[in-house]
Amino acid sequence: MIKLLLLALLGFVVYSFFSGLLLRSGKSRRPLNRTNQGETMVEDPQCGTYLPQSDAIKANFHGREYYFCSKECLKKFKDAQGH
Ligand SMILES: [Zn+2]
Prior knowledge:
Bound molecules: zinc ion
Number of domains: 2
Order of helices and strands: HEEEEH
């Protein structure tokens, strides 16, 4: 009877170990700051979208670099800056 209990426990441990692994690998498929190619992701300060740096529109305000997903966002941000 105790053997059966241990077996059930072992089965549970193995099951949670593998389901934990699956969960983790599922999450790591889409890392927050990197694309699959390892490219740097930048945040559009206007709409909060993350996009690859090479796809972003770069602009300078007050000596700082900003990246935008579209010209619309760049324009809106520019207007909000009062320039
Ligand atoms: Zn945007």
